[in-house]
Amino acid sequence: MPHVLIVDDSPDELGWMSEVAEAEGCTVATADSLRAARVQLVRQQPEVLLTDIQLPDGNGLQLVHDLEAPAQTEVVAITGHASVDSVVEALRLGATDYLVKPVDVERLRGILKRQPEAAELRHEIGELRGELRRAGRFGLLLGASPAMQSLYDKLARVAPTSATVLLIGESGTGKELAARTLHDLSRRKRCPFLGVNCGAISPQLIESELFGHEKGSFTGADRQHIGFFERANGGTLLLDEVTEMPMELQVKLLRVLETGSFVRVGTTQPISTDVRLVAATNRLPEKAVAEGRFREDLYHRLNVFPVVLPPLRERGNDIETLAQHFLDELNRQEGTLKSFSPQAIARLYEQNWSGNVRELRNYVQRAFILADDVVEAAETSETTMESGPADVISIRIGTPLDEVERRVTMATLERCGQVKRKTAEVLGISLKTLYNRLEVYSMKDQAHETGSLPSGHRLPPAPPQGNRGGPGAAKH
């Protein structure tokens, strides 16, 4: 049974919040000042500390420093001023979540409902910390290098909290696995984990995907759609490639983070949501802010607990450990007993691995397919932008210009890891032009398969041909 300490100088607030906590099966202690709260902390450390920031004798978050074991208590700040600065400051002072006055009863219940397994969760994380030292494994992540040990320690510390996490790392470093590990080691692990790639959804659809829409709210909305924020309620939502989010949607995301509520497209009715947000990006977010493509206030709101994932080339012997892990997986799947030759192992350390763990996995799979009993080195991947002049596609003389444009566009998109903004920059065209091209290609593919365009659709106008990197560009 979790113990809750509620600190507020309003008797009415203390009264009704105590009733809610007791109804959720918690034991409750109350205090109306910092001094009274410190007395309660000496008597028993709570699993949940609900404290108003503005108390008669100081800031309620000063109580964080009085906790004997801060990692074992979820600190929830209660504020009457829902500004970005106040919320971010509360989280940085030690709060793991926050409530805005007047406190939403359902959000309070959601916080309390995820508490009962706190002791079990601490035990599980403690076991994992021991395991990672023995076997180099932590949750879904694998590796024993110092860089990974540091990563595991950060994930272990932040996982039990509700703090927003910003994962920063190159493509293929395992950001989604890190996000899933955070979820699996949190109090929300029995609730949904959902991920959405902000760079893979067209700007016209991403608001609907995140927040949902009502039937008839726009052309083609023939039924109600429940968005990611609503479906992930109580759990964790991963916003991958968050710096690719359209600027106008960034404002709405910021509003959700401030208020804990959102509005479906086509309605004005706010819907409360209790979601732990994990954002991820393969860019330097500060650079995106400096270039005016990412809001500075949103960046600070997401950057409560930044975690940098190390690239594979900085992980030493983890390269061999991961390669052997992938080979063991393939042997189990195929019922074989293949092994690496010494030359193949040596070759692993000669590669740059610009595609990181994802590239290594593909490399091992290619080598496995080509091997009989002993796995030798495979051909290296040619899918990275860094390979310079080797990034060439062959085009026969006389190929129609629209086909040349299509092949160059799709090849560049592949080499940019499907990141559309980066692809547009490499091609020297606008992001809107790139989306237009991709829509044209998709429509033509459907028309080719069915013999006609889908009902209600017509091809958008082709983009202008004067853009740099357009038709005929065979090298990039």
Structure, described:
Helix 1 (11-23) links the parallel strand 1 and strand 2 (27-31). The longest helix is centred in the C-terminal third of the chain and has 20 residues, at 431-450. The strands form six sheets. The chain has a five-stranded parallel beta sheet, with helices on both faces. It has a five-stranded parallel beta sheet with strand order 11-12-15-10-16. Strands 4-5 form a two-stranded antiparallel sheet. Helix 5 packs antiparallel against helix 6 and helix 13 (318-334) crosses helix 15. It has helices at 11-23, 34-43, 84-92, 105-113, 118-135, 146-158, 175-184, 206-211, 228-231, 247-259, 285-290, 296-302, 318-334, 342-348, 356-370, 401-415, 420-427, 431-450; strands at 3-7, 27-31, 48-52, 54-55, 58-59, 74-79, 97-100, 137-138, 141-142, 165-168, 193-197, 236-240, 261-263, 270-272, 276-281, 305-308, 339-340, 374-375. Mean pLDDT is 82; it is low at 381-390 and 453-476. The chain is α/β, with parallel strands linked by helices. The protein folds into four domains: 3-115, Response regulator (Rossmann fold, 3-Layer(aba) Sandwich), CATH 3.40.50.2300; 119-308, P-loop containing nucleotide triphosphate hydrolases (Rossmann fold, 3-Layer(aba) Sandwich); 312-375, Helicase, Ruva Protein, domain 3 (Orthogonal Bundle), CATH 1.10.8.60; 390-476, no CATH class.
